[in-house]
Specification:
- The protein is of the alpha/beta class and about 230 residues long.
- The chain contains seven helices and ten strands.
- The protein has a six-stranded mixed beta sheet, sandwiched between helices. The chain has a four-stranded antiparallel beta sheet with strand order 2-1-4-5, with helices on one face.
- About 40% of the residues are buried.
Length: about 230
């Protein structure tokens, strides 16, 4: 398998009012295509900063980040935006859905931005909704009529609709009860094992991280453990 994510000695320093804060301090790791990896750490550990770099939302102060073999530091904003739209599917803790808009329309949104034909966009959105495990009867429901677990599945479907290489999930169970969270995590496992998506899960909870096949633990801007917990 090839490396889809490669971080080499990534450092991120924030400067505010003359004070420097080191969020990441020489982080190096690779993730292969088709892996399910959790990046785990407490609040302030640097995991959110790392997520923003991996998601091409931010750039490191020093070091190199390669996504599918491309050096992200060499790309302009248009290229980075295209990568965020087509290469990475984002799933956030807060769902980030349009509240008075149907499930179908929410999932179609990335395709609308990509100027995909309406009929094709609808068909692709419906397939993504089914892949995310949401009941077909909910397609025309407004997102604010759904439960938390259903909203997160809509968010997963929206992340899938452009068929990205990577799904980047930031605390995706943070607003869910334990039972619903387990269902959502099982959906990620299914997408990884049956569809082959590379999944990077950001979490501070060990029991959530254990749904992945490998856990990278970060603390004080450093990787303190990188452990495979399941083999297939």
């Amino acid at each position: 398998m090839k490396n889809i994510i490669e971080c080499k000695n990534i450092t991120k320093i924030y400067v505010n009012d003359g004070n420097s804060t080191v969020a990441l301090n020489g982080v190096s790791f690779t993730i292969q295509e088709g892996e399910f990896v959790a990046i785990m750490g407490p609040s302030g550990s640097g995991k959110s900063t790392l997520m923003h770099i991996v998601g091409a939302l931010d750039v490191p102060t020093s070091g190199q980040y390669f996504l599918d073999g491309r050096d992200m530091s060499k790309l302009g904003e248009d290229d980075l935006a295209n990568i965020r739209m087509n290469k990475i599917g984002f799933v956030f803790q807060a769902f980030n859905l349009l509240p008075r808009t149907t499930v179908l329309r929410n999932v179609m949104l990335p395709l609308v931005y990509n100027n995909v034909d309406t009929h094709e966009a609808e068909e692709r959105a419906k397939k993504a909704i089914m892949s995310a495990g949401l009941d077909e009867s909910k397609i025309y429901s407004l997102s604010n009529q759904l439960s938390g677990g259903q909203m997160q599945r809509v968010a997963i479907a929206r992340a899938l609709v452009n068929n990205p290489s990577i799904i980047l999930a930031d605390e995706p169970t943070g607003n869910l009860d334990t039972k619903t969270g387990e269902i959502v995590l099982a959906t990620f496992q299914q997408l990884n094992r049956e569809k082959g998506h590379t999944i990077v899960l950001i979490t501070h909870e060990p029991n959530v991280a254990e749904h992945a096949d490998r856990i990278i633990t970060i603390r004080d801007g450093l990787i303190i453990q990188d452990k495979v917990i399941k083999t297939r």
